[in-house]
Amino acid sequence: MITRGCQYVVARSQHLDLMKPQLMDHRYEDAQGNFCCERFEFFHFTGVQSIKQVFEAIKYFMLNMEITISEALGHTTVREDYDTVDDGTSIWNYRLLSTDSHGITSEENKVVLTEYFDESVQMDGRPCAVVVTDSVDVDDLYPYNTQERVRSDISATTVLTEMRRKKHKRSKSTGSEQQVNETEYEGNLPIHSKEVGKSMSNCEEEEDEVVVVMQRAAFLKMHKPDFDISIGAMRSLKGG
Predict the structure, then answer these.
(1) Which range (93-107, 188-202, 204-218) has the least confidence?
(2) Which contiguous run of DSSP H or E holds residue 166?
(3) 209: helix, coil or strand?
(4) Which end of the chain is less packed: N or C, by CB atoms within 10 Å?
(5) First and final CA of the chain: distance in angstroms?
(6) What's the Cα-to-Cα distance from 32 to each of 134, 149, 222, 227, rounded to whole Å?
(7) What is the CATH number for 106?
(8) How far is CA 183 from CA 41, 55, 173, 195, in A?
(9) DSSP H helices in 77-202
(10) From start to end residue, where is composition biased (Polar residues) (predicted)?
């Protein structure tokens, strides 16, 4: 799963600039009435020290996902872990039951694999970290209850790579010199700056900055409910 997921993400991004923002989102309803969403996106983490730092933060988020969902969306979310193997390079299986403000409960049953590579073949020997999520098709222990809950299947791959770029650093003003810099930013990158008032020219120093690039490909299928649901409640499920 990890190798296939990584290969897919690399193929999707092979003609893209990894240092530029990317977002592709495709939503549709299939022939069976299931709501589907395909999403591919980049995130850039600056001010971090390494891939491992971001990797550990992502794993922590996933292990506490029910808290995040409850706080962000106001849903009542319950997590049930019933199989966890290895605290380092890990694989675990869990269920999420989330009830929204309309009283509709959705359920997810997932398998998650995570792995860190010091030298990745897919990344030409560079370090990378991979998180792969897939849905459980059949679970005899916890069978899906489509008569009462909305089933959501999610397959996703997250790939973390480390890039470096030059970081511009201005020296501090000295003496009685006073100046105000108005800088416009696009994301985390300054595009230009204007100096207001009387000032003297400053020296610029360049140093390397670590940028962790997160590439994420995800596919969601929300199964058509086997029970009546209002248009507003369905719209809320699709948007959440």
Answers:
(1) 188-202
(2) strand 150-170
(3) strand
(4) C
(5) 27
(6) 21, 17, 11, 15
(7) 3.30.530.20
(8) 27, 31, 16, 9
(9) none
(10) 173-182
Distance CA 15, CA 29 (A): 29
Looking at the structure, tell me whether residues 179 and 63 fall in a common domain: no
Decide: 25 and 217 in contact? Cβ < 8 Å: no
Q: What angle do CA 152, 73, 230 make, to 5 degrees?
A: 60
Please tell me whether residues 11 and 117 are part of one structural domain.
yes
Contact between residue 237 and residue 104 where contact means Cβ atoms under 8 Å apart:
yes
Beta carbons within 8 Å of 150's beta carbon, 6+ residues apart: 104, 105, 106, 107, 222, 223, 225, 229, 237
Q: What is the pLDDT of residues 5-17, one digit of tens each?
A: 999 999 999 999 9
Alpha carbon distance 111, 96 (integer Å): 12
Q: Say if residue 182 is in the same domain as residue 139.
A: no
Q: Mean pLDDT throughout 92-98?
A: 86
- Which residue reads 């719209």 in tokens? 235
Domain ranges, residue 34:
2-166+209-239
Largest CA distance in the chain: 75
